[in-house]
Amino acid sequence: MRPRRLKNEINVVPYIDVMLVLLVIFMVTAPMMTTASIDLPSVGQAAQPPAQPLEITIRADGSLSLRDRASGTADRTLARDELAAAVLDAQSTRPDQPVLIAGDKSVKYEVVLGVMDELQRREVKRIGLLVQPTGK
After folding, report:
1. Which is nearest to 94 in space by CA: 58, 56, 49, 43?
2. Burial of 45 (0-12, 13-18, 19+ CB in 10 A)
3. Beta strands 99-103; 127-129: pairing state
4. Nearest C-alpha neighbor of 62 from the set 100, 99, 112, 101
5. Residue 59 CA neighbour count, 13 Å, CB half
6. Cα(77)–Cα(79) distance, integer angstroms
7. Which of 59, 68, 86, 98 could disulfide-link to 53, CB 3.0 to 4.6 Å?
8. How far apart are CA 10 and CA 87, in angstroms?
9. Looking at 24-114, which runs of residues are DSSP E strands?
10. For residues 75 and 92, what is the distance between their CA atoms, to the nearest angstrom?
C-alpha cells in the first residue's frame, strides 16, 4: 500500500457559493432602499435680506482695519487687541451681522487664523473669509 500524498490545493467552491448568495441578497434588497432627500431653501422663502457684513481687512504690513458696511462708515484702523471689542460693539445693535475677514495675498495664513481665533474666543458669531473669485 502506498502512503497518501498531501495536496496543496484550496477548495474555492464554498467561497463561490457564499459570493453568489451575497449577490442575490444585494440584488433583492437594493431596489428596496430609499434615498435621502434634502429640502433646500429657495430664494422666495427668505424672510429678510441678509445683514450687511462687518469687514476686517488685514493688509500686507499686518495692520488691521474695520469697515461696517451697514452704516457705510469709512475704514477704521485698529490694533489687534482692540479688534474684538470693536466687533462686539458693532454687533451689539445687530447680533445677526456677519463678520468677514479679508487678508492680503501676501499675508501669512497664520495671521488670518490668529485674527479668526481671537474673534471666536471672544464669542463673535458668524465669522467668514472674504475671497475674490478668479476671472475667466
Report:
1. 49
2. exposed
3. parallel
4. 112
5. 11
6. 7
7. 98
8. 72
9. 54-58, 64-68, 76-78, 99-103
10. 19
Question: Measured between alpha carbons, how far is 26 from 20 in angstroms, rounded to an integer?
Answer: 10
Question: Cα Rg for the chain, rounded, in angstroms?
Answer: 31
Place of cell 471672544: 122
Compute the distance between CA of residue 22 and CA of residue 28 in angstroms, rounded to an integer. 10
- Identity of residue 126: R
pLDDT in tens, the chain (136 residues): 677 777 788 888 899 999 999 999 999 999 888 776 655 555 554 455 566 888 888 888 888 988 887 777 778 888 888 888 888 888 888 888 888 888 888 888 899 899 999 999 998 888 888 776 655 4
